[in-house]
Amino acid sequence: MYRRxxxxxxxxxxxxxxxxLSPDVVxxxxxxxxxxYGRAAMFDFYRQAWTYFDxxxxxxxxxxxxxxxxxxxxxxxxxxxxxxxCPITPMRAGPPYTVSGPVGYVFELGRITRIDAS
Length: 118
Description:
It contains 3 helices and 6 strands; from the N terminus they run ααββαββββ. It is an alpha+beta fold. The protein has one domain (2-117): Nuclear Transport Factor 2, Chain: A. It has a 6-stranded mixed beta sheet. Helix 1 (2-10) runs antiparallel to helix 2 (14-20). The radius of gyration is 14 Å and the shape is globular. The chain starts with a helix and ends with a strand. The model has no long low-confidence stretch (mean pLDDT 95).
């Protein structure tokens, strides 16, 4: 299921993502940006974000413990339009760059209920 979620994310397929994310999902990157509460808030952010940049995530080092999955996520970001008001950091169009870090996912009843930097 998780790999299908990653594929849907990379395809920017909101319809498919909806099947994997709880309506009440919490998306919390800690100090990186304000937390988003609910699938609608997450989708609103990405609908806007993907008009400024493309991103593709790849995962490795997947570990599971009960209903929690932890993975090392590497994201390649290609900013094609300046986004000075981006809540993560001001973004400028330019060459692609890569960021990596651990990401945690909590699953309940077959859906992701929490995504966080862990």
